[in-house]
Every structure is written in C-alpha cells, then in structure tokens.
Amino acid sequence: MDPALNPFAPGSGVRPPALVGRQVEIDAFELLVARAKANTAGDRGMLLTGLRGVGKTVLLNVFSDIARHNGWLVVQFEAQPGDKAGGAARRKLARELQLGARRLRPTPAWSHLREQGLGSISNISVSLGLQGLTADLKFAAGRADSHDLDIDLEELVEDICLSMSKARAGFALVIDEMQDLDEDLLGALLAVQHTAGQRGWPFFIIGAGLPSLPGRLSESRSYAERLFQYRQIGRLDHSAASEALTVPIDRLGGILRGDALETLLEAAGGYAYFLQAYGRTVWETASDREITVGDALLAVELGTADLDQGFFVARWQRTTRSERGYLRAMSQDGEGPTATADLIDRLQKDHSSLTSQRARLIDKGIIFAPEHGHVQFTVPGMGSFIARQSND
Ligand SMILES: Nc1ncnc2c1ncn2[C@@H]1O[C@H](COP(=O)(O)OP(=O)(O)OP(=O)(O)O)[C@@H](O)[C@H]1O
Ligand SMILES: [Mg+2]
Asked: Domains in the chain: how many in total?
C-alpha cells in the first residue's frame, strides 16, 4: 500500500498511531492529577518499569501532556548511562526547570510562582551548573542557594509547591531511564519525595526505567518502595495487540484478515515495538487494501530481518568478543533470567572475571540484574537473536 501513508511508528518514544492497552495506567495518573486539584494529600509518585521497547517513554509523554494540560509544572529529562558524576543530569534538570517554568506563563500558577518559586529556580540553576538562562528570573536571597543539593532541592520543591497548590496544580518531575541517575542526585530526589509526601506538597516523581529500577531505589533509600506506585509495563494482551495493528489499518481503509492478524501477533509476542515494526512491514508488503496471510508471512520475514539489522544488532555490535561469549552462554536459557552461578559452569571462568564482564554489559544497557545472582537481557527477543547469529 502507499508507503507515504504507512501509519506505523517503530521508534523510541514515538507516539504510536493507536495507543492501546495502557488505560489502567493513564486512569491512575489522571486520578493523581484530580486529587491534586482537590488539594488531597497522601499520594505517591509513579514508576513505570519494563524491558526495552514496551512503551514506557510513550506513556511518560502522555502523563506529561495530561499534567501540562492541567496547569502543572512539568520538568522532564532523561538520565544517561555513564553519567556517574551526574553533571549532565544536573544541567538538564536545571534547564528543564527554567523552560518548564516559562511554559507556565499563560496558566493560573504563574502569578503565584512569580512571588515564590522563580527565585529558587534561578538559584538552584546556578548550583546545578547552569548559567546564562536566568536573565529575567529574579533571584531570591537565602532560598535554594546553599549549594548543598539535599537542602536546595527541598527548598526549591517547597517554594514551587506552595505556588502550584494555590493554583490547584502540582509539580511533576518526569525522569526517563531513571536507573542511570547518579547516586547523589537519586538519593536527594528520593529524600525530597519523602518530605513532600509527609508535608502534603503536590510534588511527584514520575519515573521510568528497567525492571531493576525498584531495587536500585531501595538500595539508595530504604523507604523508597513506599514512595511510589510501581507499574510494570509489559506485553500487550491479545485484544490490545490486535487493536494496535487493526485500528491504524482500518482508519486508512485497509482490511487485515484474521489469519494475517494472527500471524503478525504471534511474531510480535505482544511487544509494542515489534508490533510497530511488523505493522510497518505488512503495510509495505500488502499490494491490495485487503491484507492476506501471504502478505503477513512475508512481512514477518522482512520485519525480523529489519529488527536483526537494527534493534538487536545495535546492541550486539557494542560488545567485545568475550562479552559475546557471556551473552551466548546466557542465551542457553532463551530469554532468561540466568543464574550467574550457571555462567561460571558454562564458561569455565572464575567469578571475578565474570563479575567485571557482567558490570560492563550492565553499563552498556544490554543486561540487568532482575534479582540478586541473576542476569537477564534488557531487550525482549535478544536470546533468540543471539541463537540466530553465527559464532564469530
Ligand atoms: N501502548 C502502545 N500501543 C502501541 N504501540 C506502542 C505503545 N506504546 C509504545 N508503542 C510503540 O512501541 C515503541 C517503543 O515505545 P517506547 O520508546 O515508549 O518504549 P520504551 O519502553 O521507552 O523503550 P526503551 O526502554 O528502549 O526506552 C514505539 O515505536 C511506540 O510507538
Ligand atoms: Mg524509553
């Protein structure tokens, strides 16, 4: 069919043509916003966890849109692997705070924020390492300017929240790839979320990350598991996955026949990114508005080749020869998880050399530790991809 009209969107954080199967999470976030509007205290932030490509970023973006639409201050940024000293994350936080505050100009919160909050944003921007954007934001002496991150963040959040709650809105700090935050910033953010909960400030960290994120947070602060609603974002069920494919095709006048749909669903295994990838190839292979099982079979073949050459290989190529050996040994368990004790047997290597390989593969974002003594691929389907590769 006409490639110019192909609606499918395999990508990162790209809004899909039909956003399906996430109404429970969207309703939960809308409730949080409604409760802030009613000045009801006692809510927790929200954390989305899941493997690569399941739709966490798309959902975070939906939450940000809802919050902005309700006049909230929304500050959104993505943490980066390898940013151990946290300089990049702090600069992004400072920049997004300033931009987020500016976006509030047309909202009811602005007049309150001008009285209380903007000064702290200016001050904390300086201590977070960002200068030059503050020209028209006034400084407030004595607020968020101690250069102690914990104190400054708490004062900042307090000032902003006092203003936002007068406008019956809230302050959302939306952090993607949250497992990559450095320890100091993570600890300070958890501490301020803790204080906010106790004092009834409408401040919420809305985060997304790999399934190892809750463990990382609990290591940082023992009370962390009580600060958040945890939502696991996983495979879409059969009916949602069907809609992800049929709704965009119907909308453009196409017909996806039942057996063709089942073929695509089986290949995608309910994973959002794969549904988009196979959706795109089936649109390409179909020669008529009625899409047949023959079109679908070819689409699965082409789509799998696209995934092998893009989604998977991008990760595979970042590994060294010995790291590939480690991953191959993991792939004996399919998609895993794998006990690290089993890898010692399979690879006949000592514990310490495997520990450093494991750490490097975690840093590269290819594996994570779902629980103590285990490792798992971050990407669904990585085990079968490795099985398809020749031994090089
Ligand atoms: N609910 C959904 N329905 C259909 N498609 C979706 C849905 N959510 C996400 N997608 C599609 O899946 C792909 C991956 O989404 P997204 O980037 O949000 O995943 P992610 O979990 O953030 O992945 P990563 O961990 O790699 O950052 C995108 O192409 C997006 O359009
Ligand atoms: Mg993402």
From this structure: 3
Q: How confident is the model at residue 125 (pLDDT cuts 50, 70, 90)?
A: confident
Pocket test for ligand 1, best of 54, 77, 206, 315 (most atoms within 8 A of CB): 54
Q: How far apart are CA 93 and CA 48, in angstroms?
A: 20
pLDDT score for 115 = 82
- What is the radius of gyration, based on Cα positions, of the chain? 23
- Quickly state the pLDDT bin for 388 (edges 50, 70, 90): confident
Nearest Cα to Cα of residue 197 among 220, 158, 227: 227
Q: Which atom of ligand 1 sits closest to the CA of residue 10?
A: 29
My answer on whether 157 and 59 are in the same domain is yes
**Residue with the nearest Cα to atom 31 of ligand 1?**
16
Task: Tell me how far the alpha carbon of residue 9 lies from the centroid of ligand 1, in angstroms.
Answer: 9
Region of 269 (left: φ > 0; alpha: ψ -120 to 50; beta: rest) is left
**Which ligand gives the minimal distance to the CA of 50?**
1
Q: Closest ligand 1 atom to the C-alpha of 208?
A: 22
Ligand nearest to the CA of 12: 1
> Are residue 102 and residue 193 in the same domain, yes or no?
yes
Determine if the pTM surpasses 0.85.
Answer: yes
In ligand 1, the atom with minimum distance to the C-alpha of 233 is 21
Q: Return the CATH number at 325.
A: 1.10.10.10
Ligand 1 atom closest to the CA of 60, numbered from 1:
18
pLDDT, tens digit, 9 for 90 and up, residues 130-174: 765 554 555 566 777 777 889 989 999 999 999 999 999 999 999
Contacts of 370 (CB under 8 A, 6+ apart): 211, 212, 337, 376
For ligand 1, residues with CB inside 6 Å are: 9-14, 16, 19-22, 50, 52-58, 244, 272-273, 275-276
Domain end marker among 196, 211, 232? 232
Give 355 Cα–ligand 2 centroid separation in angstroms: 27
What is the Cα–Cα distance from 375 to 313, expressed in whole angstroms?
A: 20
Domain of 330 in residue numbering reads as 320-388
**E-state strands within the chain:** 45-49, 73-78, 171-176, 203-209, 228-232, 255-256, 290-291, 338-339, 367-368, 374-377
